[in-house]
């Protein structure tokens, strides 16, 4: 107990380093991150002419995906929509299966939601890309039952490298900021998946009679 002269447990001491729910270790917005800052020769991203229209629901790229798949009972079931330019929005409601501390979303789950949203940008660029690096900031706790409103945008492209950023807010698109991330995605070829994925899943996905689902399963891998 705090009043008996014994030192507080580490978990409580860590909380003393927080001010108004914001971690003292949080990186200020706009701070350059090594490896995540576009090089001088990077160019502005260009929305592909065949990209989904703004407001269009993108849907799951693979029904077994933890982030967006409908067949994962404890997945995020994140629903993303195309935005203007090279941007997307998404929503994810924290379920009891997603908690870390009692009643709060697990930090790794929140990073998965950011990663899934950032990966959805590939639909607008019409490239196959995977996460190369992602750095996140946890700004405030996200309780079970809360809906996280996410947004992501591509900021630059340099060869195979795609730079992007995302944020998640509680209660609405303009609600309090809860999490944010900067990421580097790398464009890859189809054999990145077919050569490295577990053969059972690869065969099952490619044998699906729905050829649209086959194509989607290997077009985006957030």
From TrEMBL:
Query: Per UniProt, what is the membrane topology?
Result: Peripheral membrane protein
Q: Keywords, A to Z? A: Apoptosis, Cell membrane, Cell projection, Cytoplasm, Fatty acid metabolism, Hydrolase, Lipid metabolism, Membrane, Transit peptide
Q: What class of enzyme is it?
A: hydrolase
What region holds the Thioesterase domain? 103-169
NADP as UniProt keyword: no
Chain segments carrying region Disordered: 1-54
The residues forming a coiled coil are none
- Which EC number(s) are documented for this chain? 3.1.2.2
Q: Where in the cell is it found?
A: Cell projection, Ruffle membrane; Cytoplasm; Membrane
Name-wise, this protein is Acyl-coenzyme A thioesterase THEM4
Q: Which organism is it from?
A: Actinacidiphila epipremni
